[in-house]
């Protein structure tokens, strides 16, 4: 019955009885129980009707909380939401990822607990924790696998760490997978969807037509920054190979080519701010660098368009927010290289969710788990223990 309400297949007691085949008396008893435990709420419909407004069943905003963290190289974004996917609060933790997993995860945990307390959310009713990491992730084991630029993270039990801190199930995923899911669920982009994050490196996330994240056999799907670029030459990449597209076309590579420091002691986003100013002022050297990077990225995206035939390509990361130069150049390269069949209904745009797509994707992933068969069973089993 709870599954029928969550899916939207039934919004009142009569519909539940009709779709489940259960007696109305049985449905009434069980609905009363779910309302009494605080998992469901029964409210008057806002639809304009004659007479007494009908009562509808929905998930209660007090049924529990999901906590989400989107870890990046210079900072982590965190958020809490209720089980209806309503974002309650979000914040930023200024800590570099090279501080190591314990320091980052402790700082993230502390900020999330502060948000829970500030917004009067019971920490014992955290239903799931989701964290995105900027590197390859073993989704089943809940840890990063041989990530570059993340000392100490390889194999570190991130999921176990968070599970212990919050006493709730914990999920670890690649950050761009969560961004892609957020663009599909919250941004309303059509699927199949390909999200490209252009930041310190370059990564991608793929959402299938069925709305599922495609992670590959070992969680390495989407690590496109190490595909050899057309103009890569002998530029050394952090992975040890030469000519990777991430080494010549990432945000970090563009800054390095322009001689702009990525960060300073006082400003972790110094490079992002300076480049944005130069682009806004139409600095020709900066414009050329961004367009050249976009062309290299566009060559890779064109290959991915042929491989996956997405309906939407979403560009995210600092470079995607610089006027329309990046998007236009990527779009031009894709339409020039890809065949008409693959591009006739394709849309290529910059993200409309800015830096929040990963958080929204984490919230969506958490609620998918919570309202899956195993999650519903856990939710019902935990309700009496939570004193609801």
Quick overview of this protein structure:
The chain has 388 residues and is α/β, with parallel strands linked by helices. It has helices spanning 2-7, 13-20, 24-36, 101-118, 158-166, 175-185, 245-249, 251-258, 270-280, 284-308, 325-337, 340-343, 357-370, 373-385, and strands at 40-44, 55-59, 65-71, 76-82, 87-93, 126-133, 137-138, 143-144, 170-174, 193-198, 202-207, 213-214, 312-316, 347-350.
Task: Give a structural overview.
The protein is α/β, with parallel strands linked by helices. It is 41% helix and 18% strand. The protein has a 5-stranded mixed β-sheet, with helices on both faces. Strands 12-11-10-13-14 form a 5-stranded mixed β-sheet, with helices on both faces. Helix 2 packs across helix 3. The protein starts with a helix and ends with a helix. It comes from Streptomyces bingchenggensis (strain BCW-1). Belongs to the ROK (NagC/XylR) family. This is ROK domain-containing protein.
